[in-house]
Amino acid sequence: MKGLEGRAAIVTGAGQGLGRGITERLIAEGCRVLAVDVRPDGLSSLRGAEILVQDSTADDAPATILEACRKSFTTLDILVNNVGLGNAPALHDTTDEIYDRYLDVNLRAMFRLSRDALPMLFESRGNIVNIASSIGLSGYMGFGAYTAAKAGVIGVTRQMASAYGPRGVRVNAVAPGVIRTPGTEDRLHTARFKALVVATMPLGMTGEPEDVASAVAFLASQDARLVTGQVLAVDGGQTSSVFVSEEMIAAWVATQTE
């Protein structure tokens, strides 16, 4: 990708899954990366990154993360807001405490860090890539608070792109569909999941963290210099397909066992 060599980046939630894949790809592209995660075990095995053990939802998180970036790199060119919490219950089973937790991790942390990073990004004419979700683009049967938070990520992405484009800052989002990570591994191969999710995808397959990392690298690079306010779905075409009812799922599963 053009223009990534030597650039300074922050990746939150960098210790495993999507964040790890994104971090490794940016390093491979020549970026200097500050990898942030609340869990030290995942960070300790990263090679080529500066690491910071930090809870992105803590009150002092933006100040701590940005100060670590200044200390390591003096500048900031790319901010990847990846930290997230999935597998939320249905809306009718969502207590106020659950709602607050999902919005805190998935939306508030992104909002606060992006806001406080703006002075550094104005100076570098840098960019932000937020990790949203295909579920934030379309309705889904469960995941009430998660859906609300990821839809919020998309809204903030578009608002920031409009507001700060004149200052030279691009803001985009990647909306992953089903990606193989530690959080999804246990259900990827069940009959119900294949019927409910995989069979509704035009490409008929789930993704890998590297698929999301490639999209992030593109949006962060100079190859995307005219791209801002966009949400790139990396979902096998899932959000382009129609709703599939439980009855349709049952019929599909029945045909596979006959």
Question: What are the salient characteristics of this protein?
Answer:
258 residues; seven-stranded parallel β-sheet; Rossmann fold; globular; alpha/beta; 43% helix; 8 helices
Question: Would you write up a description of this structure?
Answer:
The protein has 258 residues and is of the alpha/beta class. The protein has a single domain (8-183, 206-241), classed as NAD(P)-binding Rossmann-like Domain (Rossmann fold, 3-Layer(aba) Sandwich), CATH 3.40.50.720. The protein contains eight helices and seven strands; from the N terminus they run E-H-E-H-E-H-E-H-E-H-E-H-H-E-H. It has a seven-stranded parallel sheet with strand order 3-2-1-4-5-6-7, with helices on both faces. Helix 3 runs parallel beside helix 4 and helix 4 (96-124) runs parallel beside helix 5 (144-164). One of its GO terms (molecular function) is oxidoreductase activity.
Question: How helical, in percent, are the residues?
Answer: 40-55%
> CATH top level?
Alpha Beta
Mean pLDDT: 92
- Count of extended strands: 7
The biggest sheet, with number of strands, parallel, antiparallel or mixed sense and barrel status, is: 7 strands, parallel
Gross morphology is globular
Compute the number of helices: 8
Strand content: 5-15%
User: What is the SS-derived class?
Assistant: alpha/beta
What CATH architecture would you give?
3-Layer(aba) Sandwich
